[in-house]
Amino acid sequence: MKVADIRLLQEPNKSFIYYRESNPFSQWHHHPEYELVLITKGRGKRLVGDNLSRFVEKDLVFVGALTPHEWLCDPEYFNTPDGFKGEGIVIQFLYDFLGEYFFKIPENVNLNKFLEKSSRGYEFYGESKFKIMSIMLKMIKMNDFEKLYALFSIFKIFASTKDFNILSSPTFMEPNSLNQDDPMQKALKYILQNFHKQIFIEDLHNVTNMSISSFCSSFKKTFRMTFKDYLLKIRVGYACKLLIDSSQNISLAAYKSGFENISNFNRQFKKIRGITPSQFIKEINSLEN
After folding, report:
1. Strand partners, 47
2. Per-residue pLDDT tens for 124-175?
3. Contact between residue 192 and residue 175 where contact means Cβ atoms under 8 Å apart
4. E strand spans, the chain
5. ∠ CA 250-119-219 to the nearest 5 degrees?
6. Is 139 helix (H, G, I), strand (E, B) or coil?
7. Lowest-pLDDT range of 45-49, 107-111, 183-187
């Protein structure tokens, strides 16, 4: 599935985009802007990076720069006498829309970290979700000055919240956004560069200069799963990426993702994604069609 380069029109007298969407949502696409999406009417399939999920009304997702994504409403939202009846609110901004250094100042260290890791996509829930939703809905009646400071209120929530799920696998994380000095980040960078080959625990011991027991303990504490499970998620995520691109068949995607046999690939894929690779392809084809 080819990724389109689709961008909303930014008015010349505005520094960021606040847009109420009432047309059919854009196809599989990406853009250099960060994007916050609130679905006010609609339900269907959502694809962010390699994460394929259902969405419903009040779905709230933040997507990093150049991360491919698509929301596709169910047929009932198209087959109506009045045309498409889905609706959403979109906020987009470039990293430097407030100047080259705004997000890099010391006071914004947590906000900058939030943005750096957003290439995997965030799905909000809980109190933070409803606070952000409330601000976005109130912005409808605000003037441009008020909208800017409302966006700052959203940034304040971004900088402190933990009320979100990460959507895509770590293959969608930009390696250059990682802290090169942290042992676990060194391990992650090594895994991202070598997951298609055999990786042994001893390899990570050499990379991090940690004992094997200390590494396993620290890895599980940092990533909330074992090294083995994390590696499997990366491999399956990369396979999804290949299958979405429509450039590989299932067997080749499995091989290029580091799986040595198709039966193990099918088993691990279904365990992690909840559907088989064939079913995943059917879902992707339904989005494309």
Report:
1. 52, 70
2. 999 999 999 999 999 999 999 999 999 999 999 999 999 999 999 887 765 4
3. yes
4. 4-5, 17-21, 29-30, 34-41, 44-48, 51-55, 60-63, 69-73, 87-93, 122-124, 164-166
5. 80
6. helix
7. 183-187
The beta strand positions in 226-272, using DSSP E, are none
**Interatomic CA distance for residues 231 and 92, integer angstroms:** 33
274: number of CA atoms within 13 Å, CB side?
5
Which residue, 109, 86, 108, 161, is CA-closest to 130? 161
Q: Indicate the pairing of strand 29-30 with strand 4-5.
A: parallel
Domains of the chain plus CATH, in order, are: 4-168 (2.60.120.280), 171-288 (1.10.10.60)
CA atoms of 145 and 225, how far apart (whole Å): 45
Prediction pTM value = 0.83
d(C-alpha 276, C-alpha 265), whole Å: 9
The confidence band for 176, taking pLDDT boundaries of 50, 70 and 90, is very low
Give residue 143's identity as a one-letter amino acid code: N
With contact defined as beta carbons under 8 Å apart, do 40 and 56 qualify?
no
pLDDT at 218 exceeding the cut of 80: yes
pLDDT tens digits along 243-285: 988 766 899 999 999 998 999 999 999 999 999 999 999 888 8
Of 123, 77, 20, the C-alpha closest to 8 is: 20
Q: Which long-range contacts (C-beta less than 8 Å, at least 24 apart) are formed by 274-281?
A: 277/239, 277/243, 277/250, 277/253, 278/250, 280/52, 280/240, 280/243, 281/243, 281/250
- Residue pair 94/33 in contact by the 8 Å Cβ criterion: yes
Instruction: Report CA torsion sign: 50, 51, 54, 60.
Output: negative
